[in-house]
């Protein structure tokens, strides 16, 4: 693997998921692979899981890790040809090349601002690093995608499924803030590659980008969609068509034990209890969110391993 900015960068998905599960059983097997190699992690936004699991993954492979909260550094200019006489003292052209001298792999987290759809969809932060850095780039959640999360989700479903074709439902849930579509986008894309029966359920107006959902069925009746589900992946996202808007926070869409049936409950975390999902679900044996979060390490580790093998 050269870089991991999107799911399509994985050369062989089923082998990669199997390798992630093998790494989980023997995390230190490739401790020499990352010797004298450094991962630089750049955060434009907050993180708990991505930051710690990716660092752990790198250290399991013997890498050194450096972390920069980008908001503590010089504010970056991304536009070409700008007269930089305002608030951006450093251009991405220099910054990416300089960081590349300190790093063998650069990982970037930069969420959508949810104000300008065209700008967000251009993925200008991630793509600028890809363009100007001279080392591989890993996406730790960008404007439109969270491929490390999706790989951990696929690994979790592969570990837990007892069926050849499990029924997987992605359900929207209410949330007080406007959240990006990135996690939902990558989950849908990842499930489309797997042998699963995928349905999306959300209130009208919360349709995701049709170029991502493609022919995946959408059912506006949450309870009907969840019938006989094996996995219920719950996530809030703001409107894509009315970009970045919270159309409503219909609390009837909160996931409950009654609606969940016998399905396993999945969520990328962090999750707002009794807003997105009731306590009774999260505190039950049907919730696999802790296992999911653990698999973030092995998803990141298999990605870094494949990148290191290609250096
Ligand atoms: N799921 C996830 O990406 O968690 P963090 O935002 O805490 O990294």
Automatic annotation (TrEMBL):
EC number of this enzyme: 2.1.3.11
Protein name (Swiss-Prot/TrEMBL): N-succinylornithine carbamoyltransferase
Binding site for carbamoyl phosphate: 47-50, 74, 109, 146-149, 268-269, 296
Positions annotated to bind N(2)-succinyl-L-ornithine: 141, 175, 235, 272
Enzyme class, broadest EC rank: transferase
Stated role: Catalyzes the transfer of the carbamoyl group from carbamoyl phosphate to the delta-amino group of N(2)-succinyl-L-ornithine to produce N(2)-succinyl-L-citrulline. Is essential for arginine biosynthesis.
Pathway in which the depicted protein is active: Amino-acid biosynthesis; L-arginine biosynthesis
Domain spans labelled Aspartate/ornithine carbamoyltransferase Asp/Orn-binding: 183-305
Domain Aspartate/ornithine carbamoyltransferase carbamoyl-P binding stretches: 9-159
Keyword vocabulary terms for this entry: Amino-acid biosynthesis, Arginine biosynthesis, Transferase
Taxonomic source organism: Winogradskyella ouciana
Subunit structure: Homotrimer.
């Amino acid at each position: 693997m050269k870089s991991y900015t999107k799911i399509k960068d994985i050369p062989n998905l089923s082998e990669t998921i199997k390798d992630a599960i093998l790494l989980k059983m023997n995390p230190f097997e490739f401790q020499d692979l990352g010797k004298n190699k450094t991962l630089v992690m750049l955060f434009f936004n907050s993180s708990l899981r991505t930051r710690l699991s990716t660092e752990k993954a790198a250290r399991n492979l013997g890498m050194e890790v450096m972390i920069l909260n980008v908001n503590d550094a010089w504010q970056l200019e991304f536009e070409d040809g700008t007269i930089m006489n305002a608030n951006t003292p450093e251009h991405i052209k220099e910054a990416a090349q300089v960081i590349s001298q300190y790093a063998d792999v650069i990982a970037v987290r930069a969420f959508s601002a949810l104000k300008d759809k065209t700008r967000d969809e251009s993925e200008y932060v991630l793509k600028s690093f890809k363009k100007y850095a001279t080392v591989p780039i890993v996406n730790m959640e960008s404007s439109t995608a969270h491929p490390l999360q999706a790989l951990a989700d696929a690994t979790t479903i592969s570990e837990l499924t007892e069926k050849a074709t499990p029924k997987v439902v992605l359900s929207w849930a209410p949330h007080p803030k406007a959240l990006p579509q990135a996690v939902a986008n990558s989950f849908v894309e990842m499930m489309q590659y797997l042998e699963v029966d995928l349905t999306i359920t959300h209130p009208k107006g919360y349709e995701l980008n049709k170029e991502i959902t493609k022919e995946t069925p959408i059912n506006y009746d949450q309870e009907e969609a969840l019938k006989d589900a094996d996995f219920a992946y719950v996530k809030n996202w703001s409107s894509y068509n009315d970009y970045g808007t919270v159309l409503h926070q219909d609390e009837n869409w909160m996931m409950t034990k009654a609606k969940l049936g016998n399905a396993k409950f999945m969520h990328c975390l962090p999750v707002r209890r009794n807003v997105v999902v009731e306590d009774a679900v999260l505190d039950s044996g049907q919730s696999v969110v802790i296992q999911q979060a653990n698999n973030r390490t092995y998803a990141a580790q298999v990605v870094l391993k494949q990148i290191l093998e290609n250096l």
